[in-house]
Amino acid sequence: MSAILEVKDLSKRFGGLTATRNVSFSLEPGELTGILGPNGAGKTTLFNLLTGFIAADTGSVLFEGQELRGLAPHKIVNRGVARTFQLTRPFLGMTVLENVVVACLSPRARDAHDKEARAQELLDHVGLGSKAREPVETLPYGDLRRLEIARALATKPNLLLLDEPFAGLGSSEIEPLAQLIKRLHREQKLTILLIEHKLREFMALVSRVIAIDFGEIIAIAPPSEIVRNPRVIEAYIGKTEAAHASA
Amino acid sequence: MKQLSIVDLSGAIAVVALLALAPVLLNSNYFTGVLTVCVIYAIWAASWDFMSGLTGRENFGHSLFIGAGAYTAGFLATVWYANPWYSLPTAVVVAVAFSLIVGFPTLRLRGPYFALAMLSASAIMQRLCLIFWEYSGGEEGLYGLDPLIQSPLHYYWFVLAVLVAAVAILTALAQSHWGLLLRAIRGDEATCQAAGINVTFYKIASLTISAAFAGLGGALYAHYQLQVSPPLFSVVVSITVIIMVYVGGIGSIYGPALGAIMLTLLTELLRSFGEYRLWVYTLTLMLILFFLPNGLIAPLWRRLTERFR
Q1: DSSP designation for A95
Q2: pLDDT of A171 above 90
């Protein structure tokens, strides 16, 4: 099987700071992969590079064999790469349904006849169907994450990038959201790449982990092996375990 | 999308009927003239609101399109002696051309560039009118335009019909999926891009629509005054339009149109205050904007009709 996403030597500097250094990895179709790394390791920057929100200095991003680097963010979405934001940014002053309808109007999704009906289906799918007519301001944080996923799905992605979907959620909200991501992966054969901090949920979800520190890949391995990798332990696990212990 | 409610439709018919009958009842050429200016300002305010009210990208130089439309009518009449009816479509084309020239480089960017570029473009055009006085008539401008319709009352009705058409078209667009996208752009551009929407395209396209109606209004104004002069490009015109929009209720299209009519009438009614006119006018504005930051007309209408929906 050929890779759906192939990232080669991707680098980005902000002045003197190297945010991403020679990052190379590839994703197989249908894979659920995680990106792991401490705060400031460059995970979100990597997402922004992949989705065109930040222009890379060097390297290439091949998606389904075509170069994405240099394309505007909306064009990348219409090639089939959708993302969510770590800080959810809904369209305020609109209903929950209208928030999803916006994405149903993107060129890739436009062939659906009734945009409202399709948006409603997507909301049902992520478990927000009953809140479709409510103003988006009334949604709690966990529901905003679901909305974010519904909006991303509305653009009919082949690859879904989730930026810290569990951040800021209570433990009662995490498990159902993890189930939703699993279900999307299983039922729609979506390739998913997600950034995460919350180690336990993360490890249970993904089949492979790309560990990043200081903008560089330090290890790529299945979850069971990544936790034993000395560089990963040094960069991340030790600190997190300490944080967990104190929490 | 949203259906036009019976309440809104009856309200609109009542207001239009009142506006159409007012000059007949008052039977004064002077008052018909005042109303004509009211209605032209209403076209400008509604057209400003469509782009800036919906996308939140504030245009501080709407007079660029107004002046471009008016001067197009002026040049057609005084240089080419064209049939005055050609003014209207030509003014639309010229105003749209101006919107593309300013919109393409500045609407790709976020931040204040668009507002500043519009402000300076209109100021530059005002200066150019003075610099190239041999062609533009300088301070005095161009005069000797023919009226489109001889009877002032009939011309007023024509301009009112244009306003009704403009508000109907802009409202229909604002309530369509197109309008939803413009409101989404006001909400968050990055989220829009993540939803696969070409934000720049929609901003430029809505600016051209806004410019088209502003230019049309400019030409209507030129054929009412029968002359055009550089102050049409001035910042004062742009700011006046923006104030009308805020008083009417930004983003509602009909609110700004009625706000324009109300404020233009207010200016006329305050003539009896003589020197103190500007004081009273400014004080009224400050009170409205301070106590009703969402505007007066559209929020008031929504509240009055709430129980009938």
Answers
A1: B
A2: no
